[in-house]
Amino acid sequence: MLEEVVRSQESGGRISEQMAPLAGFPPAKTCQVRDLGRMGYAEACELQRSLVEQRKRGEIPDQLLIVEHPHVVTMGRNGHDGNLLASPEVLARAGIEFHRTDRGGDVTYHGPGQIVGYPIFDLREWKRDVIAYVRGIEQVIIDALASFGISAHRDPGATGVWTSEGKVAAIGVHISRWVTSHGFALNVDTDLNYFRYIVPCGLTKPVTSMRALGPLTTRDTAVSREQVIAALERTFGSIFERDMKRARGAAESLADRQATRSPAPHTKRALERDMETLR
Asked: What domains are defined for the chain?
């Protein structure tokens, strides 16, 4: 799957070796972290496109956007419709949006309880190597999970992060003139039932979450979303050699939007009913 991403980028001509490196930032390169809270998928994509163009022009440093999406299924440009197990009508009845997107990879699910990370990152100022970048994202997540006592690893045949119980994080990226967008989705306390609508990333392998693996429920103090984000922020800075800085005014409290955190009761019933038909 990753190799397809690389071939697609090369054949599309979107990566240019001729662009001069950006100037204007100090040697200790900064990456701004923006916690956007709950945001719709289309809105997040539009924000990424805007930031990518700003990054190409050298108007902003690298960015790491952190977001949680409402229920949504997305299909990458290398995706196969056969890996979508429910029609758009069934998805809509369960309160799940469907979007086709320009990232690499196949079909995946985003929703409450996930931490989604979108690096807007100029590879010319790190390594001009797409595979090394994706491996770096995998290592960021592996190292962050280790800080919570979770042993995770790569699978030689599939992009993402895996545990003995299944896949805990998905990765799909887009690169335009060496600037990245899209990124990763880490299942923290995600309702894994929603993955039954798809064949995740086109692989018939189980998915899991941090909660299912134990640390969110077995410790005296529950692991918070903020703690997981802090771990990801720390390991991202270490792997990609960046000074991570929180952007002021970028956070959006999920508590203020708690009413949107769970689907409406009729949607829950629709989900249960439709899952029966998918078994």
From this structure: 2-13+28-252 (3.30.930.10)
